[in-house]
């Protein structure tokens, strides 16, 4: 294969995967819109529920985002009274994040909304076709990773 053919193949794969990614992100955004929550907020509540109670520093690490982005998400969740920031008895600079009952309820509703969006996609595309596509993507990823090992 010549270099230009490799570039064309790379462009085609990138376009297909990024287009699918964009559509999936849109479906998730639309599913969460009635709940007035973003996927970032939902993911953050999921981390807090799963790892919970955790310090703000731990939260930033689990988020794999910068402090300012994590702080912005924490502020939005706290303003909506979905989480609480508690003082640490030992160190007043440390805050512990925990999910409030309203946050637990919204988390369940958000996960249900995403599940319904996924079921609608499976119905439209076909569960078997979607499963085969995902298996192909994972296989291709594994093969490409093996080339660099």
Automatic annotation (TrEMBL):
Q: Which UniProt keywords apply?
A: Coiled coil
Claim: Coiled coil is one of the keywords in the record: yes
Q: Which Gene3D superfamilies match?
A: Winged helix-like DNA-binding domain superfamily/Winged helix DNA-binding domain (1.10.10.10)
Coiled-coil annotated spans:
104-131
Name of the featured protein: HTH marR-type domain-containing protein
The record's listing under InterPro entries reads: HTH_MarR-typ (IPR000835), MarR/SlyA-like (IPR039422), WH-like_DNA-bd_sf (IPR036388), WH_DNA-bd_sf (IPR036390)
Kindly give the PROSITE patterns that the UniProt entry links to this protein. HTH_MARR_2
Q: List the PANTHER family hit by this protein, alphabetically.
A: HTH-TYPE TRANSCRIPTIONAL REPRESSOR YETL, TRANSCRIPTIONAL REGULATOR, MARR FAMILY
Boundaries of each HTH marR-type domain copy?
A: 10-142
Annotated source species: Zooshikella harenae
* Highest taxon in the source lineage: Bacteria
